[in-house]
Amino acid sequence: MLRVLVVDDQFLIRSGLTALLGAAPGIEVAGEAADGEEAVRLAAETRPDVILMDIRMPGTDGITATERILAEAEAEAEPEPDGGGGEGTGRVRPKVLVLTTFDSDAYVFRALSVGASGFLLKDTPPDRLLAAIATVHAGEMLFSPRALQGIIAAYAAPVTRDPHPGLAALTPREREVLGLVGAGLSNSDIAERLVLSAATVKTHVHRCMSKLGVSSRAQAVVLAHESGIVTRPS
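The structure corresponding to this sequence follows.
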């Protein structure tokens, strides 16, 4: 069972998400939190696989909660220093999927730097939300189309005259994959479009990021837009 922690300060949204997840096969609701402080506590107690995280909450906000949750999970997973006699707890870092109104949350980008795995708007249809949970749990990053446009607007400069030097090192297939990453497609979407396996696409994405010297999918998205090589899905 994939265990999900729901974090939102609005009762109706929180209860609606809980009901949706509770009825979905293969998903178990690990708990509900109404603010960031409660989210940190429940994450430590229940150790969920995925956390649906609201951003704007009273007290400890979603970004601060995400940073603390992931840092604590990372610390527990690491072996203790010499002399401690322990080897860590084996705690797995949960994947954090941010649910936001985005247009009014300019500071949501900070969540990228603390380890969030994706962003969805709160009006996302239920089937897409369930698919997104599975996607981030599998280790992919995910952005709703509107969230992606916000990232681009905030961070991407106009198309540069001098292309990124790493682009020359990309194979034609890697360049094609990067263009689709820039359009916001997930690895599974790219695999379907290019008639490749998801594992092959994942390898291409990793090679692109290595050759371009970027450390996150979000940076790859921005670079694709700055370089003018985004492939618009038909």
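The chain has a mean pLDDT of 84.
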